[in-house]
Write a structure and sequence with these properties.
Blueprint (H helix, E strand, L loop, with lengths): L2 E7 L5 H19 L7 E7 L5 E2 L2 E2 H7 L1
Parallel strand pairs: 1-2
Antiparallel strand pairs: 3-4
Pfam family, one: Tautomerase
Protein name: Tautomerase
GO molecular function: isomerase activity
């Protein structure tokens, strides 16, 4: 029973894009590892950019500079 947790920042990812992630990862596990889609669990966790850091800095601040 595969269990996949995808962490992304909460910044405008659409419902349709999330569905594409769920179906795509499920299909990949079926193709590569022969895992049953009926037993494959995908969880998408969204995190505010204030709560995500890279290189010692909040993603919010990094994106402000771009």
């Amino acid at each position: 029973m595969p269990f996949v947790n995808i962490h992304i920042t909460r910044d405008g990812v659409s419902k349709e894009q999330k569905q594409q992630l769920i179906s795509g990862v499920t299909r990949l596990l079926e193709e590569v590892l022969q895992k049953s889609p009926a037993l494959t669990h995908i969880i998408i966790t969204e995190t505010d950019t204030d709560n995500w850091g890279v290189g010692g800095e909040q993603v919010t601040e990094m994106r402000k500079r771009k």
